[in-house]
TrEMBL record:
InterPro entries, A to Z: CbiG_hydrolase, CbiG_N, CobE/GbiG_C, CobE/GbiG_C_sf, GbiG_N_sf
Family matches, as NCBIfam families: PRK07027.1-5
Stretches assigned to the CobE/GbiG C-terminal domain: 129-252
Lineage of the species this protein comes from: Bacteria, Pseudomonadati, Pseudomonadota, Gammaproteobacteria, Oceanospirillales
Chain ranges passing through the membrane: none
Biological source species: Marinomonas pontica
Name of the protein in its database record: Cobalamin biosynthesis protein CbiG
């Protein structure tokens, strides 16, 4: 569960705004907690239960309250802190491992706010790319439903996706083109030779796919290469390949300076 914790009327108003946007962004169940009492016990209990916490108050209050229950970055849930004007979003705890950086970027984008990241990738903008493979003449519903499932698994929305990508033998795949058109994405395809350098970053390798098209995985390779080409920096798989009866889909991410 996501808890928006506010201590002032302005903070509560911002929390309600975020709550409404959360529904649009397919976030998990969320509630607004205005001046919860007893404050420390309430907050610490939510934290220990694994709730994702958004505080709209001073950073110092948050740190003093959570200090007794902090464990480590691999177990603590993500925590964000916002000012009550909604101008800044700070991923305070579990930035990378817990997903607070990525989540904070979504919150900042929804508000038009500045993301203030102080972890290993400071002040960087995430670029998300989709890679897809499919059977020839795959129906649109198979492609679209799988894509939406992939985005939902990572809390992303279609408008956060930079491009849809595949191998060059799919350059004329009618419904990959139609999917990209529907969501206003660029549709890019790459040769097996261009995709080959992504091999070391793949989560799995399929000898069958390699024997068929010349790469060990179409969806992951295409997503990774597109992310790298957009930013010029090392890409990473955000979502390993998932599949249904007729298609595969993966999500990659890289970062560029704002």
């Amino acid at each position: 569960m996501i808890r928006f914790i506010a201590l002032t009327p302005a903070g509560e108003s911002l929390a309600q705004k975020l709550l409404s946007k959360g529904v649009q962004n397919n976030w998990p169940d969320a509630v607004v907690d205005y001046k919860p009492k007893p404050f420390a016990e309430f907050v610490q209990t939510g934290f220990k239960n694994g709730d994702w916490l958004v505080f709209i108050c001073a950073t110092g209050i948050v740190m003093r309250t959570l200090a007794p229950v902090l464990q480590d970055k691999y177990q603590d849930p993500p925590v964000l802190v916002l000012d009550e004007d909604g101008k800044f979003v700070i991923p305070l705890l579990s930035g990378h491992e817990g997903g607070a950086n990525e989540w904070g970027a979504q919150v900042a984008a929804s508000l038009g706010a500045q993301l203030v990241m102080t972890t290993a990738k400071p002040y960087l903008n995430p670029i998300y790319t989709l890679g897809m493979g499919c059977e020839r003449n795959c129906p649109l519903e198979f492609i679209e439903s799988l894509m939406l499932e992939a985005l939902a698994q990572k809390g992303l929305t279609p408008n956060q996706i930079h491009s849809l990508n595949s191998i060059d033998i799919k350059a004329d795949e009618t419904n990959l083109i139609a999917l990209a058109d529907k969501y206003h994405w660029d549709f890019n395809t790459y040769s097996a030779k261009e995709l080959a350098p992504m091999e070391l970053l793949l989560s799995t390798k399929s000898d069958y796919i390699f024997s068929t098209v010349g790469v060990y995985g179409v969806a992951e390779s295409a997503a990774l290469l597109a992310a790298q080409m957009e930013t010029g920096k090392e890409p990473e798989l955000m979502l390993n390949k998932i599949k249904n009866a007729k298609a595969t889909c993966a999500v990659a991410r890289s970062y560029q300076s704002r």
